[in-house]
């Protein structure tokens, strides 16, 4: 039966990690309040955005009411309708209760200035509070606007339009087994300085008997001959050559089904339109790797449009191809025996010529061909 590994990174890039028993967690998160609020879900961010204004309006409205109450402006003879007869000079004109203090608090904090309620020179504390609330209003608006802007433009949002193929494939390229997956970008604004990395997560036992269940191994990958740095203008196939330095060197098709590992792929770069860095992640477990398949081409030249056309409907499409079921190590050993320690290309040319001329295959050749094609 196939053993499916519990994945560390989901297909959408989210990490399958839960933290617990953190000491002073709330205090540490409150010390970095800006990052905490940016990481919040949208409903909590919008709730905090609204409460930051409503609570500040109510708080300063209470301060204004106390200033006006202690000055005596709320007495019957000192109300706005009787101020002309009594000759009373209030701290703030047109204030007759807490509701009018609340409206004046909103006008002061956001510099609305309807022209009805104004501060007089009668109360120095009122002048100071007006200056303080105006400064606070500018700072709070800038802080909350910065949080919303940072949340809308963070790298995670741009990563939603970066695509990874649903499956990875293993097939032969230039005589060697290669692990491949495809990446693409849905937007016309390109990723500048795009780079891709891949890491293998599997269990490893040390010589001392220590079992490391999450051991990371960096995989050497690249696209064509350009390495891991991509000129990312259309979907590209990323290849990992399974050679002597690869941790997959000893795995055959059967081992690939029964082994437990995860390959995490990371695409990083700079967004051309905003200049911000972005990162997209995905992963492939052993059951999501197709042995003996090859990706179908998706980039074709359209003569009518005189441009290269990308068919994203075939982004995940693969074609089954003839691929040896043995491991890369066994395949190299077979090549060495079959070719007499010469290059695969020269031996292939010579073997084709001899086969076409005589049509004879030795028993050793028939045995090697059987090893390459033996079913699971």
TrEMBL record:
TM region positions: 44-67, 126-150
GO cellular component, one term: monoatomic ion channel complex
Endoplasmic reticulum listed as a keyword: no
Pfam families found in the cross-reference section: IRK (PF01007), IRK_C (PF17655)
Family annotation (SUPFAM superfamilies): E set domains, Voltage-gated potassium channels
Cited InterPro entries: Ig_E-set, IRK_C, K_chnl_inward-rec_Kir, K_chnl_inward-rec_Kir_cyto, Kir_TM
Membrane topology value: Multi-pass membrane protein
Subcellular compartments: Membrane
Reactions that this protein is recorded to catalyse: K(+)(in) = K(+)(out)
Keyword terms of this UniProt record: Ion channel, Ion transport, Membrane, Potassium, Potassium transport, Transmembrane, Transmembrane helix, Transport, Voltage-gated channel
GO molecular function, one term: inward rectifier potassium channel activity
Positions of region (Disordered): 345-366
Domain Inward rectifier potassium channel C-terminal per the UniProt entry, residue ranges: 162-333
Principal localisation: membrane
GO biological process terms on file: potassium ion import across plasma membrane; regulation of monoatomic ion transmembrane transport
Residue ranges of every copy of the Potassium channel inwardly rectifying transmembrane domain listed in the record: 9-155
Family as reported in the entry's similarity comment: Belongs to the inward rectifier-type potassium channel (TC 1.A.2.1) family.
Protein name, entry field: Blast:G protein-activated inward rectifier potassium channel 3
Upper classification of the organism: Eukaryota, Metazoa, Ecdysozoa, Arthropoda, Hexapoda
